[in-house]
Design goal:
The protein has 12 helices and 15 strands. By secondary structure, it is α+β, with helices and mostly antiparallel strands. It folds into 3 domains: 85 residues, Phosphorylase Kinase, domain 1, CATH 3.30.200; 190 residues, Transferase(Phosphotransferase) domain 1 (Transferase(Phosphotransferase), domain 1); 144 residues, TATA-Binding Protein, CATH 3.30.310.80. Helix 10 crosses helix 12.
Length: 450
């Protein structure tokens, strides 16, 4: 293909795909050295008044919406020689459908962590009045899939209807009514009824069902068969053969797959909360009575408590060691979801929760074959004097903002407790904090070193 520059600053590198709505390219932004994704729609659709109005409305909404778990819209234009175009963030990752095809199904714990991220970005979009309308594994990228740093990126937020309009105008010269992908469409989408955010929750339920079981809830020989099943049939039992799904977890998924929107959870936050409660009940039954219960966060204590004993205090306590670094993290999520994410972080980095009370946790991290193994740093001294099995202590104080339980302030103290000096201990502390922050997605507030 002949080299082309679009909008004066995006140089097309290669074609990534094409379809009814147009073509998708990998491009390079010339004024900023970064790759981008360029979506060019067919030129003829720009002459349709209805499409032009829809395009401007959607771009206005998307320009105001940014989230770490959503692909960012960088630029957009209606009238270019190549046709209407969108310039979007390029994500280096793997589509969820490809990962599922390779791995089959995910553990409930991994599903819970991914679901927490999906619900976080969906709730943010819904709060902005944005409904995805075509949520499916192919539109969910996994960044660093299968690692402790795995996270989601949702593609094409709010663009499904725009793409459908462009594709149908190019193919038929008239607007087509159906929006979505048959395997993941809600009953109200299939009936062409007015949609709200609960249509996304239905699609999310199908995705969670698939992640847990490795199969879709509704299948058929034709697309029509699948659509009819979505509107008329109950989803089959999730457990069977080698797959066992705890009843509480299955109940949450089935609630998302209710045929009527009014029977589904009221919000994405509600889905995350119910799923976390179901996992918590499972953990508590598995742990039984005794100290292991401290690893859970039930409804009567731990991170589920609404506030600490003294929630009015907003100052950081003085450090107890010269090898302590302090941080403050602001996260837009309730403590219930924070509990889930912190447990996922501890599990993924092979750490442990040493102590837990209402709004207060102490984690122990590091050790052999973990992301924070200091063996290569203290070398000879470590072999001579021995090395702490988990030489980093992370103390977290969590406090919900007054009147806003979805805003969380987290004070973090990370201390190196090794038996021998570690020249780069500050870098390890910063690395631990950045990883923890990546799980909670908050805003860093620097704190001076003691």
């Amino acid at each position: 293909m002949q080299q082309r520059i679009v909008l004066g600053r995006y140089e097309i590198v290669q074609e990534l795909g094409r379809g009814g709505m147009g073509r998708v390219y990998l491009a390079r932004q010339l004024d900023l050295p970064r790759p981008v994704v360029l979506k060019l729609m067919r030129e003829e659709v720009a002459h349709d008044a209805g499409f032009r109005e829809r395009f401007q409305q959607e771009m206005y909404l998307l320009a105001r919406f940014q989230h770490p778990y959503a692909v960012t819209l960088y630029d957009a234009a209606l009238d270019t020689p190549e046709g209407p175009c969108l310039v979007m963030e390029y994500v280096r990752g793997q589509p969820l459908d490809q990962v599922l095809q390779r791995e089959g199904r995910f553990s409930p714990g991994r599903v819970g962590r991914l679901l927490g991220q999906l619900c976080e970005v969906l709730q943010a979009a819904h709060n902005h009045g944005i409904v995805h309308r075509d949520l499916k594994p192919a539109n969910i990228m996994l960044v660093e899939a299968g690692t402790p740093y795995e996270k989601v990126k949702i593609l094409d937020f709010g663009l499904a209807e725009l793409f459908r309009w462009a594709g149908s105008l190019a193919a038929h010269g008239a607007e087509s009514a159906l929006v979505g992908t048959p395997n993941y469409m809600s009953p109200e989408q299939i009936r062409n009824e007015p949609l709200d955010h609960r249509a996304d929750l239905y699609s999310l339920g199908v995705i969670v069902y698939q992640m847990l079981t490795g199969r879709l809830p509704f299948v058929g020989e034709t697309a029509i068969d699948v659509l009819l099943a979505h509107t008329q049939e109950d989803p089959p039992a999730m457990s069977g053969g080698e797959v066992f799904i705890p009843p509480g977890v299955e109940a949450v998924v089935r609630s998302c797959l209710a045929k009527q929107p009014k029977d589904r959870p009221a919000s994405a936050w509600e889905v995350a909360r119910r799923f976390e409660l179901a996992l918590e009940e499972l953990r508590e039954r598995a742990a039984g009575p005794g100290p292991a219960m401290a690893l859970g966060c039930g409804t009567t204590g731990g991170l589920w408590s609404s506030q600490r004993e003294n929630p009015s205090s907003q100052t950081l306590a003085p450090p107890r060691s010269p090898f302590c670094r302090q941080y403050t993290l602001q996260a837009w999520l309730p403590q219930a979801l924070a509990a889930h994410k912190i447990r996922g972080f501890v599990q993924d980095v092979r750490g442990e929760i040493a102590w837990q009370a209402a709004g207060h946790l102490v984690l122990r991290l590091g050790g052999k074959h973990t992301p924070y193994d200091v063996a290569g740093q203290d070398g000879f001294l470590s072999r001579l004097f021995g090395r702490s099995s988990k030489p980093f202590e992370v103390e977290l104080h969590l406090r919900s903002a007054p009147g806003n339980p979805s805003q969380l302030l987290v004070n973090v103290f990370i201390t190196y407790l090794g038996r021998v000096p570690l020249p780069r201990w500050q870098e390890y502390c910063d690395k631990i904090y950045q990883d923890l922050r990546g799980y909670l997605i908050g805003q860093t507030v620097p704190v001076a070193e003691p």
